Amino acid sequence: MIDSEKATISSQFADEDDAESRKFLTNGFLGKTKYEEYQEEYHPGTTSFGISAFNLSNAIMGSGILGLSYAMANTGIILFVFLLFGVAILSLYSVHLLLEASKEGGSMVYEKLGERAFGLTGKIAAFSSITLQNIGAISSYLFIIKYELPEVIRAFLGIEEEWYLNGKYLVVIVSLSIILPLTFLKNLGYLGYTSGFSLTCMIFFLSVVIYKKSQIPCPLPLLGHHALNQTTLGNTSHDEKPKDDDDDMCKPKYFVFNSQTAYTIPILAFAFVCHPEVLPIYSELKGRSQKKMQHVSNVSITAMLIMYLMAALFGYLTFYDQVETELLHTYTQVYKFDTLLLLVRLAVLVAVTLTVPIVLFPIRTSIQELFFPGRSFNWLRHIGIAGFLLILNDLLVIFVPSIRDIFGFIGASAATMLIFILPSACYIKLVKKESMKSMQKIGAMIFLVIGIVFMIGSMTLIVFDWIHNPPGSGGH
Protein backbone atom coordinates (compact mmCIF):
# COMPACT_ATOMS: atom_id res chain seq x y z
CA MET A 1 0.00 0.00 0.00
CA ILE A 2 2.76 2.43 0.94
CA ASP A 3 4.72 1.60 -2.23
CA SER A 4 1.74 2.31 -4.45
CA GLU A 5 1.16 5.61 -2.70
CA LYS A 6 4.79 6.62 -3.17
CA ALA A 7 4.51 5.67 -6.83
CA THR A 8 1.47 7.89 -7.14
CA ILE A 9 3.36 10.77 -5.59
CA SER A 10 6.35 10.21 -7.85
CA SER A 11 4.15 10.25 -10.92
CA GLN A 12 2.49 13.48 -9.82
CA PHE A 13 5.77 15.21 -9.06
CA ALA A 14 7.98 13.75 -11.77
CA ASP A 15 9.75 17.00 -12.50
CA GLU A 16 13.34 17.07 -11.27
CA ASP A 17 12.93 20.50 -9.72
CA ASP A 18 10.24 19.09 -7.44
CA ALA A 19 12.49 16.57 -5.74
CA GLU A 20 12.18 18.47 -2.49
CA SER A 21 8.40 18.29 -2.73
CA ARG A 22 8.58 14.51 -3.00
CA LYS A 23 10.73 14.43 0.13
CA PHE A 24 8.32 16.87 1.73
CA LEU A 25 5.27 14.76 0.93
CA THR A 26 6.74 11.48 2.16
CA ASN A 27 8.14 12.90 5.37
CA GLY A 28 7.08 10.06 7.64
CA PHE A 29 3.35 10.72 7.72
CA LEU A 30 2.13 8.43 4.95
CA GLY A 31 2.69 5.40 7.14
CA LYS A 32 0.09 6.72 9.57
CA THR A 33 -2.37 8.51 7.35
CA LYS A 34 -3.73 7.57 3.96
CA TYR A 35 -2.51 9.61 1.03
CA GLU A 36 -6.06 10.28 -0.13
CA GLU A 37 -6.65 12.49 2.91
CA TYR A 38 -3.93 14.84 1.67
CA GLN A 39 -4.61 14.62 -2.06
CA GLU A 40 -6.33 18.01 -2.03
CA GLU A 41 -3.47 19.65 -0.13
CA TYR A 42 -0.67 18.05 -2.13
CA HIS A 43 -1.87 18.77 -5.65
CA PRO A 44 0.88 19.76 -8.10
CA GLY A 45 1.44 23.50 -8.14
CA THR A 46 0.40 25.41 -11.26
CA THR A 47 1.15 29.05 -10.36
CA SER A 48 4.27 30.62 -11.83
CA PHE A 49 7.03 32.31 -9.84
CA GLY A 50 5.98 35.77 -11.03
CA ILE A 51 2.30 35.37 -10.20
CA SER A 52 3.21 33.92 -6.80
CA ALA A 53 5.42 36.94 -6.11
CA PHE A 54 2.56 39.23 -7.16
CA ASN A 55 0.15 37.44 -4.84
CA LEU A 56 2.49 37.60 -1.86
CA SER A 57 3.39 41.23 -2.54
CA ASN A 58 -0.27 42.15 -2.70
CA ALA A 59 -0.88 40.30 0.57
CA ILE A 60 1.88 42.33 2.22
CA MET A 61 0.80 45.63 0.72
CA GLY A 62 -2.17 47.08 2.53
CA SER A 63 -3.70 50.24 3.86
CA GLY A 64 -0.77 50.63 6.25
CA ILE A 65 1.27 52.33 3.54
CA LEU A 66 -0.95 55.41 3.97
CA GLY A 67 0.21 55.81 7.58
CA LEU A 68 3.94 55.25 7.19
CA SER A 69 4.74 58.94 6.67
CA TYR A 70 3.03 59.66 9.99
CA ALA A 71 5.10 56.89 11.57
CA MET A 72 8.28 58.46 10.20
CA ALA A 73 7.25 61.84 11.60
CA ASN A 74 7.00 60.23 15.04
CA THR A 75 10.24 58.26 14.89
CA GLY A 76 12.56 60.34 12.72
CA ILE A 77 14.12 59.29 9.43
CA ILE A 78 17.07 57.28 10.78
CA LEU A 79 15.10 55.46 13.47
CA PHE A 80 12.30 54.72 11.01
CA VAL A 81 14.70 53.27 8.43
CA PHE A 82 16.38 51.16 11.11
CA LEU A 83 13.05 49.78 12.32
CA LEU A 84 11.72 49.19 8.81
CA PHE A 85 14.79 47.22 7.71
CA GLY A 86 14.83 45.36 11.00
CA VAL A 87 11.23 44.24 10.64
CA ALA A 88 11.79 43.21 7.01
CA ILE A 89 14.77 41.04 7.99
CA LEU A 90 12.85 39.47 10.86
CA SER A 91 9.95 38.73 8.52
CA LEU A 92 12.26 36.96 6.07
CA TYR A 93 13.73 34.90 8.90
CA SER A 94 10.23 34.08 10.09
CA VAL A 95 9.26 32.84 6.62
CA HIS A 96 12.39 30.66 6.63
CA LEU A 97 11.36 29.10 9.96
CA LEU A 98 7.83 28.56 8.70
CA LEU A 99 8.98 26.82 5.51
CA GLU A 100 11.41 24.62 7.46
CA ALA A 101 8.66 23.63 9.88
CA SER A 102 6.33 23.01 6.95
CA LYS A 103 8.80 20.64 5.31
CA GLU A 104 9.59 18.73 8.49
CA GLY A 105 5.97 18.69 9.62
CA GLY A 106 4.76 17.40 6.27
CA SER A 107 2.03 19.98 5.74
CA MET A 108 1.44 23.18 3.81
CA VAL A 109 -1.47 24.24 6.02
CA TYR A 110 -0.77 26.44 9.03
CA GLU A 111 -3.38 24.74 11.22
CA LYS A 112 -1.99 21.27 10.53
CA LEU A 113 1.48 22.44 11.50
CA GLY A 114 0.11 23.78 14.77
CA GLU A 115 -1.75 20.53 15.36
CA ARG A 116 1.25 18.31 14.64
CA ALA A 117 3.42 20.43 16.91
CA PHE A 118 1.06 21.04 19.84
CA GLY A 119 -2.10 19.06 19.18
CA LEU A 120 -5.52 20.67 19.25
CA THR A 121 -4.17 23.68 21.17
CA GLY A 122 -1.75 24.49 18.36
CA LYS A 123 -4.43 24.07 15.73
CA ILE A 124 -6.83 26.43 17.51
CA ALA A 125 -4.03 28.95 18.12
CA ALA A 126 -3.17 29.05 14.42
CA PHE A 127 -6.84 29.21 13.41
CA SER A 128 -7.62 32.04 15.84
CA SER A 129 -4.55 34.07 14.88
CA ILE A 130 -5.15 33.80 11.14
CA THR A 131 -8.84 34.55 11.44
CA LEU A 132 -8.49 37.56 13.75
CA GLN A 133 -5.58 39.06 11.84
CA ASN A 134 -7.19 38.77 8.44
CA ILE A 135 -10.65 39.86 9.54
CA GLY A 136 -8.99 42.97 10.95
CA ALA A 137 -7.15 43.52 7.67
CA ILE A 138 -10.28 43.09 5.57
CA SER A 139 -12.21 45.45 7.81
CA SER A 140 -9.51 48.11 7.45
CA TYR A 141 -9.76 47.82 3.66
CA LEU A 142 -13.54 48.08 3.78
CA PHE A 143 -13.26 51.14 6.01
CA ILE A 144 -11.17 52.82 3.31
CA ILE A 145 -13.92 52.04 0.81
CA LYS A 146 -16.54 53.36 3.21
CA TYR A 147 -14.86 56.73 3.72
CA GLU A 148 -12.93 57.32 0.49
CA LEU A 149 -15.26 56.06 -2.25
CA PRO A 150 -18.08 58.55 -1.52
CA GLU A 151 -15.58 61.42 -1.74
CA VAL A 152 -14.19 60.19 -5.05
CA ILE A 153 -17.67 59.79 -6.57
CA ARG A 154 -18.73 63.17 -5.23
CA ALA A 155 -15.69 64.87 -6.76
CA PHE A 156 -15.95 63.18 -10.16
CA LEU A 157 -19.71 63.63 -10.57
CA GLY A 158 -19.93 67.04 -8.91
CA ILE A 159 -22.86 66.07 -6.71
CA GLU A 160 -23.33 66.58 -3.02
CA GLU A 161 -25.95 64.42 -1.34
CA GLU A 162 -27.49 61.31 -2.85
CA TRP A 163 -28.46 58.06 -1.18
CA TYR A 164 -25.79 56.14 -3.09
CA LEU A 165 -23.09 58.40 -1.64
CA ASN A 166 -23.66 56.79 1.74
CA GLY A 167 -20.48 54.85 2.54
CA LYS A 168 -22.44 52.05 4.21
CA TYR A 169 -24.37 51.35 1.02
CA LEU A 170 -21.23 51.55 -1.10
CA VAL A 171 -19.44 48.97 1.05
CA VAL A 172 -22.27 46.50 0.45
CA ILE A 173 -22.41 47.28 -3.29
CA VAL A 174 -18.66 46.81 -3.76
CA SER A 175 -18.69 43.63 -1.67
CA LEU A 176 -21.47 42.05 -3.73
CA SER A 177 -20.43 43.23 -7.19
CA ILE A 178 -16.62 42.94 -7.08
CA ILE A 179 -15.22 41.21 -4.00
CA LEU A 180 -17.64 38.29 -3.72
CA PRO A 181 -17.27 37.12 -7.36
CA LEU A 182 -13.47 37.14 -6.98
CA THR A 183 -13.72 34.95 -3.88
CA PHE A 184 -15.53 32.31 -5.96
CA LEU A 185 -12.23 31.43 -7.67
CA LYS A 186 -10.90 28.07 -6.55
CA ASN A 187 -7.19 28.90 -6.64
CA LEU A 188 -5.16 31.93 -5.65
CA GLY A 189 -3.26 31.75 -8.93
CA TYR A 190 -6.21 33.20 -10.83
CA LEU A 191 -6.00 36.30 -8.66
CA GLY A 192 -2.42 36.93 -9.76
CA TYR A 193 -3.65 39.17 -12.56
CA THR A 194 -5.69 41.29 -10.15
CA SER A 195 -2.65 41.33 -7.85
CA GLY A 196 -0.55 42.77 -10.64
CA PHE A 197 -3.15 45.45 -11.33
CA SER A 198 -3.43 46.23 -7.64
CA LEU A 199 0.32 46.65 -7.30
CA THR A 200 0.29 48.89 -10.36
CA CYS A 201 -2.22 51.12 -8.57
CA MET A 202 0.06 51.36 -5.54
CA ILE A 203 3.05 52.18 -7.75
CA PHE A 204 0.97 54.98 -9.25
CA PHE A 205 0.23 56.20 -5.73
CA LEU A 206 3.94 56.19 -4.92
CA SER A 207 4.79 58.05 -8.14
CA VAL A 208 2.33 60.82 -7.36
CA VAL A 209 3.65 61.14 -3.79
CA ILE A 210 7.15 61.61 -5.21
CA TYR A 211 5.91 64.09 -7.84
CA LYS A 212 3.91 66.17 -5.37
CA LYS A 213 7.01 66.64 -3.22
CA SER A 214 8.31 69.11 -5.82
CA GLN A 215 4.92 70.81 -6.27
CA ILE A 216 3.98 71.66 -2.69
CA PRO A 217 5.96 74.44 -1.00
CA CYS A 218 7.00 74.50 2.62
CA PRO A 219 5.79 75.92 4.92
CA LEU A 220 2.07 75.68 4.29
CA PRO A 221 0.60 78.59 6.25
CA LEU A 222 -2.98 77.71 5.35
CA LEU A 223 -2.70 74.02 6.13
CA GLY A 224 -5.52 72.98 8.42
CA HIS A 225 -7.50 76.21 7.90
CA HIS A 226 -8.81 76.03 4.38
CA ALA A 227 -7.70 74.17 1.31
CA LEU A 228 -5.90 75.72 -1.59
CA ASN A 229 -6.77 75.09 -5.17
CA GLN A 230 -4.19 73.91 -7.66
CA THR A 231 -3.80 77.33 -9.27
CA THR A 232 -3.00 78.97 -5.96
CA LEU A 233 -0.31 76.42 -5.22
CA GLY A 234 1.06 76.76 -8.71
CA ASN A 235 1.51 80.51 -8.21
CA THR A 236 3.19 80.16 -4.83
CA SER A 237 6.78 81.23 -5.04
CA HIS A 238 9.25 78.58 -4.03
CA ASP A 239 11.86 81.29 -3.60
CA GLU A 240 9.91 83.00 -0.86
CA LYS A 241 11.75 82.57 2.42
CA PRO A 242 9.70 81.16 5.25
CA LYS A 243 9.36 82.98 8.51
CA ASP A 244 11.90 82.27 11.22
CA ASP A 245 9.24 80.55 13.29
CA ASP A 246 8.63 78.17 10.39
CA ASP A 247 12.24 77.10 9.94
CA ASP A 248 11.83 73.99 12.07
CA MET A 249 8.69 73.00 10.18
CA CYS A 250 10.70 72.47 6.99
CA LYS A 251 13.66 70.64 8.47
CA PRO A 252 13.62 66.85 8.58
CA LYS A 253 14.14 65.21 11.96
CA TYR A 254 16.28 62.11 12.23
CA PHE A 255 15.46 60.92 15.75
CA VAL A 256 12.10 61.61 17.38
CA PHE A 257 10.79 60.39 20.70
CA ASN A 258 7.30 61.40 21.77
CA SER A 259 4.10 59.85 23.08
CA GLN A 260 3.39 58.31 19.67
CA THR A 261 6.84 56.86 19.00
CA ALA A 262 6.33 53.59 20.85
CA TYR A 263 2.83 53.20 19.42
CA THR A 264 4.11 53.41 15.84
CA ILE A 265 6.44 50.43 16.25
CA PRO A 266 3.58 47.89 15.90
CA ILE A 267 2.47 49.72 12.73
CA LEU A 268 5.86 49.03 11.18
CA ALA A 269 5.92 45.43 12.38
CA PHE A 270 2.50 44.60 10.99
CA ALA A 271 3.32 46.19 7.63
CA PHE A 272 5.00 42.92 6.62
CA VAL A 273 2.41 40.43 7.86
CA CYS A 274 2.02 37.92 5.04
CA HIS A 275 2.50 34.63 6.86
CA PRO A 276 -1.10 33.36 6.57
CA GLU A 277 -0.70 33.62 2.78
CA VAL A 278 2.79 32.07 2.56
CA LEU A 279 1.71 28.43 2.83
CA PRO A 280 -1.33 28.66 0.49
CA ILE A 281 0.86 30.38 -2.12
CA TYR A 282 3.58 27.77 -1.50
CA SER A 283 1.10 24.95 -2.09
CA GLU A 284 0.20 26.36 -5.53
CA LEU A 285 3.74 27.29 -6.63
CA LYS A 286 4.74 25.49 -9.82
CA GLY A 287 7.77 23.24 -9.29
CA ARG A 288 7.61 24.15 -5.64
CA SER A 289 10.53 23.79 -3.28
CA GLN A 290 11.52 25.49 -0.07
CA LYS A 291 14.32 27.36 -1.83
CA LYS A 292 12.02 28.60 -4.58
CA MET A 293 9.38 29.80 -2.13
CA GLN A 294 12.05 31.57 -0.09
CA HIS A 295 13.07 33.38 -3.27
CA VAL A 296 9.44 34.38 -3.82
CA SER A 297 9.35 35.78 -0.29
CA ASN A 298 12.67 37.58 -0.74
CA VAL A 299 11.49 39.29 -3.92
CA SER A 300 8.11 40.27 -2.49
CA ILE A 301 9.34 41.57 0.87
CA THR A 302 12.24 43.47 -0.72
CA ALA A 303 9.94 45.12 -3.26
CA MET A 304 7.50 46.15 -0.54
CA LEU A 305 10.37 47.41 1.62
CA ILE A 306 11.45 49.77 -1.16
CA MET A 307 7.90 50.98 -1.77
CA TYR A 308 7.26 51.51 1.94
CA LEU A 309 10.48 53.47 2.36
CA MET A 310 9.87 55.69 -0.67
CA ALA A 311 6.25 56.42 0.24
CA ALA A 312 7.10 57.21 3.85
CA LEU A 313 10.12 59.36 3.00
CA PHE A 314 8.57 61.52 0.28
CA GLY A 315 5.30 61.87 2.16
CA TYR A 316 7.17 63.00 5.26
CA LEU A 317 9.46 65.38 3.35
CA THR A 318 6.38 66.98 1.79
CA PHE A 319 4.53 67.79 5.02
CA TYR A 320 7.08 67.13 7.78
CA ASP A 321 5.40 67.40 11.19
CA GLN A 322 2.13 68.44 9.55
CA VAL A 323 1.54 64.99 8.06
CA GLU A 324 -1.63 63.31 9.30
CA THR A 325 -2.27 59.68 10.16
CA GLU A 326 -3.58 59.09 6.62
CA LEU A 327 -1.36 60.65 3.98
CA LEU A 328 -4.08 61.10 1.35
CA HIS A 329 -6.20 63.05 3.81
CA THR A 330 -3.30 65.47 4.30
CA TYR A 331 -3.31 66.25 0.58
CA THR A 332 -7.01 67.05 0.72
CA GLN A 333 -6.22 69.72 3.30
CA VAL A 334 -3.89 71.34 0.77
CA TYR A 335 -5.81 71.00 -2.49
CA LYS A 336 -9.44 71.94 -2.88
CA PHE A 337 -9.56 69.94 -6.09
CA ASP A 338 -6.84 68.05 -7.91
CA THR A 339 -7.56 65.50 -10.61
CA LEU A 340 -4.30 63.62 -10.16
CA LEU A 341 -4.88 63.14 -6.44
CA LEU A 342 -8.43 62.02 -7.09
CA LEU A 343 -7.06 59.41 -9.47
CA VAL A 344 -4.63 58.32 -6.74
CA ARG A 345 -7.47 57.89 -4.28
CA LEU A 346 -9.32 55.86 -6.88
CA ALA A 347 -6.19 53.75 -7.45
CA VAL A 348 -5.85 53.08 -3.71
CA LEU A 349 -9.51 52.08 -3.59
CA VAL A 350 -8.97 49.63 -6.44
CA ALA A 351 -5.85 48.24 -4.76
CA VAL A 352 -7.49 47.56 -1.39
CA THR A 353 -10.63 46.19 -3.06
CA LEU A 354 -8.61 43.62 -5.02
CA THR A 355 -6.59 42.71 -1.94
CA VAL A 356 -9.63 41.59 0.06
CA PRO A 357 -10.16 38.28 -1.85
CA ILE A 358 -6.50 37.29 -1.37
CA VAL A 359 -6.65 37.99 2.37
CA LEU A 360 -9.94 36.10 2.61
CA PHE A 361 -8.48 32.88 1.16
CA PRO A 362 -6.46 31.81 4.25
CA ILE A 363 -9.43 32.53 6.53
CA ARG A 364 -11.56 30.18 4.46
CA THR A 365 -8.78 27.59 4.49
CA SER A 366 -8.58 27.86 8.28
CA ILE A 367 -12.33 27.39 8.70
CA GLN A 368 -12.32 24.36 6.41
CA GLU A 369 -9.39 22.78 8.23
CA LEU A 370 -10.99 23.28 11.64
CA PHE A 371 -14.61 22.41 10.89
CA PHE A 372 -14.39 20.28 7.72
CA PRO A 373 -11.07 18.38 7.95
CA GLY A 374 -10.37 15.85 5.21
CA ARG A 375 -13.45 16.83 3.18
CA SER A 376 -13.21 17.00 -0.59
CA PHE A 377 -13.70 20.31 -2.35
CA ASN A 378 -17.30 21.51 -2.41
CA TRP A 379 -18.42 24.60 -4.33
CA LEU A 380 -21.37 25.29 -2.05
CA ARG A 381 -19.16 25.26 1.05
CA HIS A 382 -16.47 27.24 -0.79
CA ILE A 383 -18.90 30.03 -1.73
CA GLY A 384 -20.89 29.88 1.51
CA ILE A 385 -17.87 30.49 3.74
CA ALA A 386 -16.79 33.44 1.59
CA GLY A 387 -20.26 34.96 1.74
CA PHE A 388 -20.44 34.53 5.50
CA LEU A 389 -17.06 36.21 6.02
CA LEU A 390 -17.97 39.16 3.81
CA ILE A 391 -21.30 39.63 5.60
CA LEU A 392 -19.50 39.58 8.96
CA ASN A 393 -16.96 42.19 7.87
CA ASP A 394 -19.61 44.39 6.25
CA LEU A 395 -21.65 44.37 9.46
CA LEU A 396 -18.58 45.38 11.47
CA VAL A 397 -17.80 48.25 9.11
CA ILE A 398 -21.43 49.42 8.96
CA PHE A 399 -22.42 49.27 12.62
CA VAL A 400 -19.16 49.83 14.50
CA PRO A 401 -18.27 53.55 14.31
CA SER A 402 -14.60 53.06 15.17
CA ILE A 403 -12.80 49.72 15.24
CA ARG A 404 -9.29 51.07 14.83
CA ASP A 405 -8.36 50.49 18.46
CA ILE A 406 -10.14 47.14 18.69
CA PHE A 407 -8.40 45.72 15.65
CA GLY A 408 -5.16 47.33 16.74
CA PHE A 409 -5.33 45.18 19.86
CA ILE A 410 -6.34 42.07 17.89
CA GLY A 411 -3.64 42.74 15.33
CA ALA A 412 -1.01 43.17 18.03
CA SER A 413 -1.75 39.74 19.44
CA ALA A 414 -2.63 37.83 16.27
CA ALA A 415 0.09 39.25 14.02
CA THR A 416 2.75 38.67 16.65
CA MET A 417 1.60 35.06 16.92
CA LEU A 418 1.84 34.63 13.14
CA ILE A 419 5.18 36.39 12.67
CA PHE A 420 7.17 35.42 15.76
CA ILE A 421 5.62 32.86 18.07
CA LEU A 422 4.02 30.18 15.87
CA PRO A 423 6.81 29.84 13.24
CA SER A 424 9.55 29.64 15.87
CA ALA A 425 7.57 27.34 18.19
CA CYS A 426 6.66 24.97 15.33
CA TYR A 427 10.27 24.96 14.15
CA ILE A 428 11.58 24.11 17.61
CA LYS A 429 9.03 21.33 18.04
CA LEU A 430 8.96 19.75 14.57
CA VAL A 431 12.54 20.04 13.29
CA LYS A 432 14.18 17.02 14.90
CA LYS A 433 17.39 17.03 12.85
CA GLU A 434 18.74 19.99 14.84
CA SER A 435 19.66 19.67 18.51
CA MET A 436 18.48 22.25 21.03
CA LYS A 437 22.09 23.44 21.33
CA SER A 438 22.44 24.12 17.61
CA MET A 439 22.63 27.69 16.35
CA GLN A 440 19.41 27.19 14.39
CA LYS A 441 17.43 26.15 17.47
CA ILE A 442 19.03 28.84 19.64
CA GLY A 443 18.11 31.44 17.01
CA ALA A 444 14.53 30.18 16.95
CA MET A 445 14.39 30.33 20.76
CA ILE A 446 15.59 33.94 20.75
CA PHE A 447 13.04 34.74 18.06
CA LEU A 448 10.31 33.16 20.19
CA VAL A 449 11.29 35.22 23.24
CA ILE A 450 11.34 38.40 21.13
CA GLY A 451 7.83 37.58 19.94
CA ILE A 452 6.50 37.08 23.46
CA VAL A 453 8.11 40.32 24.67
CA PHE A 454 6.82 42.17 21.62
CA MET A 455 3.28 40.86 22.17
CA ILE A 456 3.20 41.84 25.84
CA GLY A 457 4.76 45.24 25.12
CA SER A 458 2.44 46.06 22.21
CA MET A 459 -0.71 45.02 24.04
CA THR A 460 0.36 46.98 27.12
CA LEU A 461 0.96 50.14 25.06
CA ILE A 462 -2.42 49.82 23.38
CA VAL A 463 -4.21 49.32 26.71
CA PHE A 464 -2.49 52.42 28.10
CA ASP A 465 -3.55 54.32 24.99
CA TRP A 466 -7.13 53.16 25.52
CA ILE A 467 -7.01 54.41 29.12
CA HIS A 468 -5.76 57.87 28.17
CA ASN A 469 -7.65 58.08 24.85
CA PRO A 470 -10.79 55.93 25.11
CA PRO A 471 -11.96 54.31 21.85
CA GLY A 472 -14.55 56.39 20.07
CA SER A 473 -13.37 59.61 21.66
CA GLY A 474 -12.47 60.93 18.26
CA GLY A 475 -11.57 60.03 14.74
CA HIS A 476 -12.37 56.94 12.84
Key phrases:
476 residues; mainly alpha; 17 helices; single chain; disordered N terminus; Amino acid/polyamine transporter I
Count of discrete alpha- or pi-helical segments spanning 4 or more residues? 17
CATH overall fold name:
Amino acid/polyamine transporter I
Indicate the overall shape: globular
The class by helix and strand makeup works out as mainly alpha
Q: Order of helices and strands, N to C?
A: HHHHHHHHHHHHHHHHH
How many extended strands?
0
Subcellular location: Membrane
Protein name: Solute carrier family 38 member 4
Main location: membrane
Keywords: Membrane, Transmembrane, Transmembrane helix
What do you see in this structure?
It is a single chain. By secondary structure, this protein is mostly helical. The chain has one domain: Amino acid/polyamine transporter I. It has 17 helices and no strands. α6 runs antiparallel to α16 and α7 crosses α14. The protein is globular and about 60 Å long.
